């Protein structure tokens, strides 16, 4: 349904026409966009206010749905379905209908079509901040770093410092650069973003990735501590940034500090949100690789992950669930997850494909590693194809596969150091971001 012919056109702060809005609703909508672009809390509340002011505001409905689709929680994704159904019945312009079509594609589990549709939106409307942010998120979820870089680079000429949200475009550009290995340019872009908006938590997160990938843990600790009030308060990325800070301490050999951050920051409130569970497992597993017994912490995590076993939605989640079960020596849940994945791998869905290619060999490898079957773990990890990035996540997150492989190699080559209950010196793998092929070469050496 299109807007009535001859109706006055209302535009957002970047010049994109919007349907069904009034001035008060548009103000609330812009506050939501601003919060979302800076990765700060409050976007949902501002959108709710916008829709109270103007129930027919199509892009406010679309943004509500987009916020639910941008993660890896199958339940949250499906909860966007009624929002989409309602918005489809409202008068909308062509750009807005493309947004709704992209939402429908994700609900149908077709992320590639959604990314294509949003790419078409951006070709016609390069200043569509929501289309850019959502497409950037989907590129990340699907592990397409090259597309992520090209997409942001393609719209940059249409933006300038006079436009609200320019800092967020720079931050997205910076993250795409760091994921494509262009660390100096990434750091420069992140610093430029912060010059425009020092409260851009997304840009601080990019800086953490730069320090991680360039192996500058002490600089990372210094940066994160100096800017702690900016990224740790009223942001959607606080737990993840605490995770980054803990990784820097691990890399510097301060295991006690990393474990303290796990207890007081990463897992302090025992969140059941998937993003928080991923960070908790990813940190505790790395601490385990350093030879530290985390005790009962693993049991709590395994219990928190149990409701997600049957999701059949995201291979990235499946790997972290298996790490939780292995860390807790919860072999019942670990075998149950493998049974679910075995059936999922027979399907023709996106998850079925990534399960066959990546999920099953990797989760079986983690289980073998946890049972001390290092040769079997290496054999399975060697089957993980070069396109492991397709499970999504960042290089820093996927590095857990490389670290585990290198650790298994170390145990095989130096078994005398790994008696029952042995605690080893800090183990920091150099060059983990070079990939599993590099680790395979180490194994053959």
Let me know the average pLDDT: 91
Proportion of beta-strand residues? under 5%
* Major beta sheet summary: 2 strands, antiparallel
> Looking across the biggest beta sheet, what order are the strands in?
1-2
What does this 3D model show about the protein?
The protein is mainly alpha-helical. It folds into three domains: 1-145, Alpha Horseshoe (Serine Threonine Protein Phosphatase 5, Tetratricopeptide repeat), CATH 1.25.40; 165-261, Tetratricopeptide repeat domain (Serine Threonine Protein Phosphatase 5, Tetratricopeptide repeat); 270-445. Helices cover 66% and strands 1% of the residues. It is built from 24 helices and two strands. The chain has a two-stranded antiparallel sheet. It is globular.
Tell me the layout of helices and strands.
Elements: E1 10-11, E2 17-18, H1 23-37, H2 43-53, H3 58-69, H4 74-78, H5 81-88, H6 94-107, H7 111-124, H8 129-141, H9 145-155, H10 166-179, H11 183-196, H12 201-213, H13 217-226, H14 228-232, H15 238-251, H16 255-266, H17 274-289, H18 297-305, H19 315-327, H20 331-344, H21 350-370, H22 374-381, H23 395-413, H24 436-444
Antiparallel strand pairs: 1-2
Helix pairs in contact: 1-2, 2-3, 3-5, 3-6, 5-6, 6-7, 7-8, 8-9, 9-10, 10-11, 10-12, 11-12, 12-13, 12-15, 13-15, 15-16, 15-17, 16-17, 17-18, 17-19, 17-23, 18-19, 19-20, 19-21, 20-21, 21-22, 22-23, 23-24
Characteristics:
mainly alpha; Serine Threonine Protein Phosphatase 5, Tetratricopeptide repeat; globular
Overview in brief:
The chain is 66% helix and 1% strand. With 445 residues, the protein is an all-alpha fold. Strand 1 and strand 2 form a beta hairpin.
């Amino acid at each position: 349904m299109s807007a009535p012919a001859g109706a006055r056109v209302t535009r957002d702060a970047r010049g994109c026409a919007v349907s069904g809005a009034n001035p008060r609703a548009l103000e609330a909508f812009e506050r939501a966009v601003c919060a979302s672009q800076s990765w700060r809390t409050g976007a949902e509340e501002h959108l709710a206010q916008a829709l109270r002011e103007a129930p027919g505001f199509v892009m406010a409905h679309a943004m509500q749905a987009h916020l639910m689709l941008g993660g890896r929680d199958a339940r949250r994704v499906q909860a966007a379905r009624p929002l989409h159904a309602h918005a489809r019945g409202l008068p909308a312009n062509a750009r807005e209908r493309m947004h709704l079509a992209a939402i429908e594609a994700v609900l149908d589990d077709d992320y590639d079509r959604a990314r294509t549709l949003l790419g078409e939106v951006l070709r016609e409307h390069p200043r569509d901040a929501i289309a850019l942010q959502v497409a950037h998120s989907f590129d990340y979820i699907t592990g397409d770093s090259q597309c992520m870089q090209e997409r942001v680079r393609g719209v940059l000429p249409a933006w300038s410092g006079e436009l609200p949200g320019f800092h967020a475009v720079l931050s997205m550009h910076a993250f795409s650069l760091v994921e494509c290995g262009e660390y100096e340019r990434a750091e420069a872009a992140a610093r430029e973003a912060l010059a425009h908006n020092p409260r851009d938590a997304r840009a601080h997160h990019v800086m953490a990735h730069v320090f991680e990938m360039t192996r500058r843990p002490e600089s990372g600790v210094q940066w994160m501590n100096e800017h702690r009030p900016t990224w740790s308060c009223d942001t959607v990325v606080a737990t993840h940034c605490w995770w980054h800070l803990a990784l820097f301490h691990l890399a510097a050999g301060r295991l006690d500090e990393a474990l303290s951050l796990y207890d007081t920051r990463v897992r302090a409130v025992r969140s059941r949100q998937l993003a928080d569970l991923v960070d908790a497992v990813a940190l505790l597993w790395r601490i385990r690789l350093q030879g530290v017994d985390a005790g009962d912490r693993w049991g709590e995590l395994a219990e928190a992950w149990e409701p997600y076993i049957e999701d059949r939605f995201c291979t990235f989640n499946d790997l972290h669930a298996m790490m939780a079960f292995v860390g807790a020596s919860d072999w019942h849940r670990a075998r149950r997850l493998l049974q679910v994945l075995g059936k999922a791998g027979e399907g023709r869905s996106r998850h079925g494909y990534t399960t066959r290619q990546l999920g099953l060999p990797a989760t079986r490898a983690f289980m073998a590693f946890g049972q001390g079957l290092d040769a079997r773990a290496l054999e399975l990890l060697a089957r993980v194809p070069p396109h492991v990035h397709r499970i999504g996540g960042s290089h820093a997150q996927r590095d857990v596969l490389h670290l585990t492989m290198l650790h298994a190699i170390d145990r095989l080559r130096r078994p005398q150091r790994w008696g029952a209950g042995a605690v080893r010196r800090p183990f920091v793998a150099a060059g983990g971001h070079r990939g599993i092929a590099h680790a395979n070469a180490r194994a053959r050496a």
